[in-house]
Amino acid sequence: MIKALSAANKSERDKFKIPRSVQQSIPVKCVYADGIWLVGRKHSRTWRFSDVNYAAASEDDRRGIFLSYGGVLNSLPTDAAAKITIINRRLNPVDFQRTILMKERGDGLDQYRRESNRILTQRAAESNNLVQEKYITLSIPQRKIEESRAYFRRVDANLSKSFGRLDSGARPVSTHDRLRILHDFFRPGEEQYFTFDQSAAVRRGLDFRDLICPDGLRFRVGYFEMGDKVGRVLFLKDYASYIKDSMISDLSDFSRNLMLSIDILPIPTDEAVKEIQGRILGIETDITRWQQRQNDKNNFTATVPYDLEQLRGEAKEFLSDLTERDQRMMFAVVTLVHIADSLEQLDADTETLLSIGREHLCQFSVLRYQQEDGLNTVLPYGLRRVKALRTLTTESAAVLMPFRVQEIQDPGGLPYGVNAISKNLLICDRKRLISPHAFYLGVSGSGKSMAMKSTVENVALATNDDIIIIDAEREYGPLARALGGEVIEISPHSKHHINPLEVTEDYGDGENPVAMKSEIITSILEQQMGV
To answer: Which of 123, 173, 236, 502 could form a disulfide with 46 if both were Cys (CB 3.0 to 4.6 A apart)?
Structure first.
């Protein structure tokens, strides 16, 4: 069980210190106001990056995204450990109601708002109803905090530039948001209750872990109990010789609360070349000894065994990648934790995740007697407690592609359908865009008019915007009347007419109104005559 901790050290206003007696249970020793944490003997900081439309892109665009992501991996500093984390969590019903559903106004249109909210809630229930967040955490050996701050400022500029090439962007995460990530994981279903005011907490002598820890945490042989939930940590035990770039997206698309982390340790190129040259020398030595044994047996025509020849070819290819193809040597490990309501559901979900790995010829395995180490590895602390590293090149590491599809769920936005890939709702606030214009395009009978009527309805019910419709087909009249709008009919038989000869006060803005009106009349006559 995680007990309530003693008061934080009040002598330093910008951080919390954890009592020495509980350092082993919680790896975070102190958190600084600017988002830097002291975890174990390392300083770490987290950045959030946006998803890109990788799954919906063409082959050429995918290749470009893949190469750009390889450039991101190549740009990672060699003196830091990187952790890419993908977090799946259920959409909080309270947040959904507060930011997406329409609020009643008592203006006679609330019946339509309730019906729209019912339809939207039903669509959300039919969708994945998941919110996916992506983070990258860098950790460096502990040093003076001023030096760490200078280091992370420099890294921040490099990450922003590298992810900017992907149209993704990397934004540093504050201490408040980092704690929110842990709170949402440790306390699923209580996301709306998280509050954190560092100054107030220091004054009151509160420990930040009291705000994020579950009611209980107990580690078993192959799973752990967390409050009224159970969870399990898996790791990628065996890689396939060929991995599709869709494996990570297939795992993260699983409709459960889960967290997947990819730990990457870049190796300096000079050290990597020396390492591979040493391996090649060892393989050549084994081949020479084998040939000498065959010569001693007067077997001078024997060919080198296939396994030794294969090792030699792979080692030479690896060296060629490092020296000629701008590849880097990296160590990587993949870990995953998923949460369930019961042990039976947890076992079923584990089998599903294992089968997804087997479909990609990869073997995931449960961490036995290492659930605590695995959990500390998955969470975006910046730690790596699981020693299951695999040597990869930049291209091999880039195959573990974290990108899938870009979600559009703007707070206060309007619904525009369902994402064709993730099946999540598209909630967009067009006023935030550089160009807020929108068009509905499609063949006849595809539903353009119905989609436009739905948009008009949402704008009328959820905003105070003015709506002007030019209805040549006269199909929007019933909708306008139902929403309390005014319909002006212009025809030879209606009471509304347009007088092209009318001249109002201040017409022409200082110019000769008769001359300007004459030009308009001339233009109308030319159009009628076909001139």
So the answer is: 173
> In the block, which residue shows the tokens 């905003």?
463
Per-residue confidence band for 531, with pLDDT thresholds at 50, 70 and 90: low
Pairing of strands 81-90, 258-266: antiparallel
Query: Mapping DSSP to helix (H, G, I), strand (E, B) and coil, where does residue 355 land?
Result: helix
- For residue 84, which of 163, 143, 184 has the smallest C-alpha distance? 163
Residue 266 burial by CB count (10 A; 0-12/13-18/19+): exposed, middle or buried? Answer: buried
Q: State the pLDDT at residue 25.
A: 56
The rounded mean pLDDT for the chain is: 85
pLDDT in tens, 81-113: 999 999 988 777 777 777 788 888 888 888 999
pLDDT range class, residue 492, cuts 50, 70, 90: confident
d(CA 313, CA 390): 19
Indicate whether 1 pLDDT > 60. no
Q: What is the CA radius of gyration of the chain?
A: 31
Domain 20-91+129-267+328-398, architecture per CATH: 3-Layer(aba) Sandwich (3.40)
What distance in Å separates the CA atoms of residue 261 and residue 185, rounded to the nearest whole number?
Answer: 14
> Which pLDDT score, from 0 to 100, does residue 345 have?
94
If you average pLDDT over residues 498-502, what whole number do you get?
A: 78
Do the Cβ atoms of 194 and 180 come closer than 8 Å? Answer: yes
Q: Which amino acid is at 291?
A: Q
CB-neighbour burial class of residue 76 (10 A; exposed 0-12, middle 13-18, buried 19+): buried
Half-sphere exposure for 255 (CA within 13 Å, toward CB) = 8
Beta bridge partners of 130: 90
Residues 6+ apart with CB under 8 A from 216: 1, 2, 225, 226, 227
52 and 243 Cβ atoms separated by less than 8 Å: no
pLDDT digits (tens, 9 = 90+) for 454-465: 999 989 988 888
* Model pLDDT, residue 506: 73
Q: Is 371 exposed, middle or buried (0-12, 13-18, 19+ CB in 10 A)?
A: buried
DSSP reduced 3-state for 172: strand
Q: Say if residue 256 is exposed, middle or buried (CB neighbours under 10 Å; 0-12, 13-18, 19+).
A: middle
Q: How far apart are CA 98 and CA 318, in angstroms?
A: 53
Across the range 125-140, mean pLDDT stands at: 85
Residue 84 token pair: 């890419």
Buried b (16+ CB within 10 A) or exposed e, 286-307: ebeeeeeeeeeeeeeeeeeeee
- 3-class DSSP assignment, residue 226: strand
Angle at CA of residue 272, ends 288 and 237, nearest 5°: 90
